[in-house]
Amino acid sequence: MFQQKNGPSEDTDLKDTYLIPRNIMAEPDYIEDDNPELIRPQKLVNPVKTSRNHQDLHRELLMNQKRGLAPQNKPELQKVMEKRKRDQVIKQKEEEAQKKKSDLEIELLKRQQKLEQQELEKQKLQEEQENAPEFVKVKGNLRRTGQEVAQVQES
C-alpha cells in the first residue's frame, strides 16, 4: 500500500528549495568595494520638512496633541450632519415652547394674525385703487355721489 522513501535526503531536498531566499535584486557595487572614487548615495533632503513654517506647525500640532486639543478639521459631511442635528434640537425646543403656551396666548396670536391679514387686504385695495385707470376712479366717484344724493332725498 504505502511506498517507503529511500531516505531522508529526498525530504530535505524539497524543503531546502523552499527555504532558500531568492535574491531578486542585485546588490549595489558600493557595498562590496571600498573604492573612494565611487560617489556614495545620500538620502535626499526634503525641502518641506526643513522649512521653518513646517517645523513650527509640526511642533504646534504635537503640543496640541499632548494637551488634548485636536484640530477641528472635520469632513464636510460630518459638519452638515451636526448642523442638522442642532437645527432639529432647536426646532424641538421651539415646539415645546409652543405647547407650553396658555390658551390666552394662543387666542391673542390668532387675533394678531387676523388683524395683520386685514391690514394687508386694506393695503392691497388701496394699491389697486391707486393703480386703477382714471375713468374707473371717476365712475366710482359718480356712484358715491349718486348714493349720497339718494340718501339725502330719502331722509
UniProtKB/TrEMBL annotation:
<feature type="compositionally biased region" description="Basic and acidic residues">
    <location>
        <begin position="76"/>
        <end position="103"/>
    </location>
</feature>
<keyword id="KW-0175">Coiled coil</keyword>
<protein>
    <submittedName>
        <fullName>Family with sequence similarity 107 member B</fullName>
    </submittedName>
</protein>
<feature type="region of interest" description="Disordered">
    <location>
        <begin position="65"/>
        <end position="103"/>
    </location>
</feature>
<dbReference type="Pfam" id="PF06625">
    <property type="entry name" value="DUF1151"/>
</dbReference>
<feature type="region of interest" description="Disordered">
    <location>
        <begin position="119"/>
        <end position="140"/>
    </location>
</feature>
<dbReference type="InterPro" id="IPR009533">
    <property type="entry name" value="FAM107"/>
</dbReference>
